[in-house]
């Protein structure tokens, strides 16, 4: 499909969304109350993860870091998972953002990331085993998982970039949305096995910026399933000189 056709489709979708919003006011995806995509009452009922685990073997860990047995297999230091994809409201909200192109919902999801990270940072007191990305939080760099330019043009926005921007703004972190790039338009990961996901991502990402000189990085996305995309990002960032690289997602699918 040509870029002109993609741009035309995106404009049609944007027009449909615009008129839909006029005819049908914004309603809470949980209870239907008008005014917000997630009302205060429904937002307060969304679970925030308190128990973290190694994404490799599911062993409980303090922050979502990889355990001693798994850490050597990954470039990622760990993955922060804010909530639970089994929660129907979380699932509905993420799908509305990704597939109905309702990018205003990103503000609601970013609040979950912020609340979750506030709780993680509160663990600083009396805990000497904290990850460097937490102890040196103010110097971390937030980056979204990148979309290929064709995919982003078709969708009209990168949902991970929306989340990363809100997160970085709240915590006054440096935000880099330009230098980590998806240089190959890959197949959708949704229906692939873990092995197929890893193969699908090989050489699909590249770093186009200056050396990272040990900077700690937080890679933001909406959902992770196997962690393959986050791991591929971490591999590229480590080659560019990054220190710790952590994933931060709304939920694990």
Can you list the strand order of the major beta sheet?
Answer: 3-9-8-4-5
Tally of discrete structural domains: 1
The whole-number mean of residue pLDDT values reads 86
Helix and strand succession? HHEEEHHHEHHEEHEEHE
Shape: globular
Beginning-to-end CA distance, first to last residue: 30 Å
Unreliable residue stretches:
none
User: Which class of secondary structure composition applies to the elements?
Assistant: alpha/beta
The count of β-strands is: 9
Write down the Rg: 18 Å
Give the biggest sheet.
5 strands, parallel
Q: Strand-residue fraction?
A: 15-25%
The amount of helix comes to 25-40%
**Total number of helices:** 9
Family: Belongs to the ComF/GntX family.
Pfam families: DZR_2, Pribosyltran
Protein name: Phosphoribosyltransferase domain-containing protein
InterPro entries: ComF/GntX_DNA_util-trans (IPR051910), DZR_2 (IPR044005), PRTase-like (IPR029057), PRTase_dom (IPR000836)
Secondary-structure blueprint:
Elements: H1 3-23, H2 40-45, E1 52-53, E2 60-61, E3 78-84, H3 88-99, H4 106-121, H5 132-135, E4 141-144, H6 149-155, H7 159-171, E5 174-175, E6 180-182, H8 194-201, E7 205-207, E8 217-224, H9 228-239, E9 245-252
Parallel strand pairs: 3-9, 4-5, 4-8, 8-9
Antiparallel strand pairs: 1-2, 6-7
InterPro entries: ComF/GntX_DNA_util-trans, DZR_2, PRTase-like, PRTase_dom
Family: Belongs to the ComF/GntX family.
Domain Double zinc ribbon: 20-70
